[in-house]
Design brief:
By secondary structure, this protein is an alpha/beta fold. It has a domain of 190 residues: NAD(P)-binding Rossmann-like Domain (Rossmann fold), CATH 3.40.50. It contains 10 helices and 13 strands. α2 packs across α3 and α5 crosses α7. The model has no long low-confidence stretch (mean pLDDT 95). It binds NADP nicotinamide-adenine-dinucleotide phosphate. NADP nicotinamide-adenine-dinucleotide phosphate binds next to α1, α3 and β5.
Length: 299
């Protein structure tokens, strides 16, 4: 019989998919997978431990109904790329605000929020700022709140994992600033383990904001070269100056909303090094980068 009932928002996301696949094969946890549109239901893993709910964040009653009987919510809904219909404010901040309110009203004990390395409510960068504001909503709420800040996530399901394989297969590619910034890519299965560990901490310790990065620092250029090597390909990595990319993105922004903006360029070229990695605090074993890349090859 399942003993812990959790809710997962943005359940059709890459991370949600991995979490739900695991829950579908366990008996000690059950989950309600929350999505905001009917069409997303088809994308969800199924199993006797998984039920589903469609709830829009503007609809407090639907959110509260979905959270009935839930002890912990894992909040995954969020974006890096804005669009004509979705902004950092609506996707990253307002979803969190609505969820905190619904969770508090329904007696949920704990909310686990997936944030980003670099999140800061005072950041001049719109993405980092929105994640920082959302973190503050979660950790300042009248329930236990945990934020896990993550770097680039790699797994066959993630946009970053797919882009890396595509880029490394191309023969030649251009990277922003020569790809010299340091990444600490995290295996999506390790994030899944970290989320389960956080959920199990019913009374989270004083450190409620965790920076969780992968075990190895690597430049983006180095990552592409390692991936190409594993794929048995040769890749020549060139450079586009960051200032030029931002100029182009700024000009494109005059005609469209979102996409590759100067803010996104800053995010994806930021260093992901952290002063303290939370793998020990969350008691998880990190997957070596080479094994994570191997999973991408085998997918
Ligand atoms: N992937 C990474 O490398 C990475 C790095 C750092 C942090 N994160 C964070 O980790 C979380 C999961 O990432 P992921 O890559 O697994 O996500 P993903 O696959 O890109 O899925 C995004 C999810 O957010 C939902 N969403 C988008 N706009 C929304 C809005 N305005 N209102 C409500 N829901 C909205 C989407 O629902 P629809 O399908 O209905 O649009 C989808 O369920 C996100 O919060 C992300 O910011 C990811």
């Amino acid at each position: 019989m399942p003993t812990t009932r959790i809710a997962i928002t943005g359940a059709n996301s890459a991370v949600g998919n991995v979490l739900l696949t695991e829950i579908a094969n366990t008996t000690d946890t059950s989950a309600v997978a929350i999505v905001r549109r009917e069409g997303a239901l088809e994308e969800l893993p199924t199993g006797s431990s998984v039920t589903t709910a469609v709830a829009r964040y503007e609809d407090g009653a639907a959110l509260r109904a979905a959270l009935d009987g839930v002890s912990c919510v894992v909040h995954l809904a969020g974006i890096l790329f804005e669009s004509r219909t979705t902004t950092y404010q609506s996707a990253n901040v307002e979803t969190t605000q609505a969820l905190v309110e619904a969770a508090t009203d329904t007696g949920v004990r704990h909310l686990v929020f997936i944030s980003s390395i670099g999140a800061d409510p005072a950041s001049p960068n719109g993405y980092f700022r929105s994640k920082g504001v959302a973190e503050a909503l979660v950790t300042g709420a009248d329930l236990a709140g945990t934020a896990i800040r993550t770097p680039l996530l790699l797994g066959p399901e993630t946009a970053g994992g797919r882009a890396l394989v595509r880029t490394a297969s191309q023969g030649s590619t251009k990277t922003l600033g020569g790809g010299t910034h340091t990444l600490r890519p995290l295996d999506i299965d390790d994030l899944s383990a970290a989320i389960f560990a956080a959920v199990a901490q019913d009374q989270p310790a004083d450190r409620s904001v965790h920076d969780l990065v992968g075990p190895t620092g690597v430049t983006y250029r180095g990552l592409i070269e390692q991936m190409a090597n594993l794929l048995g390909k040769d890749v020549s990595v060139g450079s586009t100056p960051i200032w030029l990319a931002k100029l182009g993105a700024g000009a494109a922004g005059l005609f469209r909303q979102g996409g590759m903006t100067p803010d996104v360029i800053d995010v994806i070229t930021s260093s992901e090094d952290v002063p303290h990695n939370a793998d020990g605090d969350l008691d998880i074993m990190l997957t070596p980068l080479a094994n994570t890349l191997q999973k991408l090859v085998q997918a």
